[in-house]
């Protein structure tokens, strides 16, 4: 018998790689923070032993969600200015609040609280975008998450930096500080094409190349962004970014809502990624990203929650469910954005965009043990006819009971409260058994 750290015995395992596969009655073996093996539980019991054996006879185990776009500290301004028009919301609520509160402790505390919410929602890695990025990373790490923090650049003064030169200097310091860190990586994060000038964008491209770091940027979020760019620069934002050297395999184009066929070609040719944030796009009335078209052209798509001010939930399962449904409606085709396409986008898609897919995004031996368990034995998900489809379409984040990062349990939900008397739950379980697998 081989001694390991943790054995997770699951009813179902959804490894993401290979695509479309659901394994039954399997154990995930965790040692030294990594996945050592995935094998049938009956065999695992003859080969491995551990002090920590987690038996989950009614749960599905899968990789943790990779939240490809967050502003974690904005949990502290959640709820401000609901239903205002976008520019009013920003100029009368969000920017004044941030201007007043912005400090290392504001960012740390907000990120920590967001990290707790994310951990309880099955998010094991988040790619954050904000001022005081090392404080954001510290808050997220305090909550147990892995994160990509932002070497953040924006063309106006803040408590973080006063001008382009200082932003760029601090950005490079963030990239240096994250070098070789197992849990905190850095992206180069110019805020958006309309808030950063050409010279600073070129400098961001150079930093991205020098540190081989992803470029994490809001791109083509609104129709006005595109029309203003045509007015001010004579080209659409993506064409301008391409001329400045930012459209390549390191680009994560966040939102990517207003895309014509040429824009999609440009992203596909470059091997760039997009990050789809459907709740934020709906709440801020930005529009609909052409996700099915992007996927069919081979563009890597990840999913993000955006900040709590514009969502307002950091709920990747809910976000992915909405993304799947919207993609079908936008394409007018139910066969696109399949269950496995979208679960892949929410995990491995994000990991690929961050160039972190050698460690995270799927359950494979040798990768980090960043994983979650989802209890499907609840009234909203029984009988279980198709575990993957019911995970995506029927379950909610309240079904997520365990979240591990690098083999360490960072969140656990003791019970999923049912608002029925026990007799009703027993009766529902026996009815589910009666009707399961009768097709
Ligand atoms: Zn954002």
Automatic annotation (TrEMBL):
It comes from the Bacteria. Pfam families: Amidohydro_1. NCBIfam families: PRK09045.1. Keywords: Hydrolase. Coiled coil: none annotated. Belongs to the metallo-dependent hydrolases superfamily. ATZ/TRZ family. One of its GO terms (molecular function) is hydrolase activity. Residues 60-409 form the Amidohydrolase-related domain. This is TRZ/ATZ family hydrolase.
């Amino acid at each position: 018998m081989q001694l390991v750290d943790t054995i997770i015995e699951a009813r179902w395992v959804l490894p993401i790689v290979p695509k479309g596969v659901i394994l039954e009655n399997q154990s995930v073996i965790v040692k030294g923070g990594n996945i050592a093996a995935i094998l049938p539980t009956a065999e695992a019991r003859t080969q491995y032993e551990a002090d920590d054996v987690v038996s989950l006879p009614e749960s599905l185990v899968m990789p943790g969600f990779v939240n490809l776009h967050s502003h974690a500290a904005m949990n502290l301004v959640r709820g401000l200015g609901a239903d205002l028009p976008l520019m009013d919301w920003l100029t009368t609520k969000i920017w004044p609040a941030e201007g007043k509160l912005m400090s290392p402790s504001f960012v740390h505390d907000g990120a920590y609280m967001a990290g707790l919410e994310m951990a309880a929602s099955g998010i094991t890695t988040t790619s954050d975008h904000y001022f005081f990025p090392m404080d954001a990373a510290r808050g997220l790490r305090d909550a147990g998450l892995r994160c990509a923090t932002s070497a953040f650049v924006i063309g106006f003064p803040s408590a973080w930096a006063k001008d382009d030169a200082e932003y760029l200097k601090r950005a490079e310091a963030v990239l240096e500080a994250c070098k070789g860190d197992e849990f905190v990586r850095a992206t180069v994060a110019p805020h958006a094409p309309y808030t950063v000038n050409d010279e600073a964008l070129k400098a961001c491209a150079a930093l991205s190349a020098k540190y081989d770091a992803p470029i994490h940027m809001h791109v083509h979020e609104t129709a006005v962004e595109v029309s203003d760019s045509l007015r001010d620069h004579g080209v659409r934002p993506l064409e301008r970014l391409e001329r400045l050297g930012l459209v390549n395999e390191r680009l994560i184009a966040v939102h990517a809502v207003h895309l014509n066929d040429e824009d999609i070609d440009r992203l596909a040719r470059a091997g760039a990624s997009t990050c789809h944030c459907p709740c934020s796009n709906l709440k801020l009335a930005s529009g609909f990203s052409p996700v099915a078209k992007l996927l069919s052209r081979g563009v890597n798509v990840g999913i993000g929650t955006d900040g709590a001010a514009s969502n307002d939930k950091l709920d990747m399962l809910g976000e992915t469910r909405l993304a799947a449904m919207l993609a079908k409606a936008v394409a007018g085709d139910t066969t696109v954005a399949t269950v496995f396409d979208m679960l892949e986008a929410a995990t491995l898609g994000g990991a690929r965009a961050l160039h972190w897919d050698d460690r995270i995004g799927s359950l494979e031996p040798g990768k980090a043990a960043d994983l979650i368990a989802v209890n499907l034995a609840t009234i909203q998900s029984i009988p279980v006819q198709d575990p993957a489809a019911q995970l995506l379409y029927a379950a909610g984040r309240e079904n997520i009971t365990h979240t591990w990062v690098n083999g360490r349990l960072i969140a656990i939900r003791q019970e999923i409260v049912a608002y029925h008397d026990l007799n009703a739950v027993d009766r529902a379980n026996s009815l589910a058994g009666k009707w399961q697998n009768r097709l």
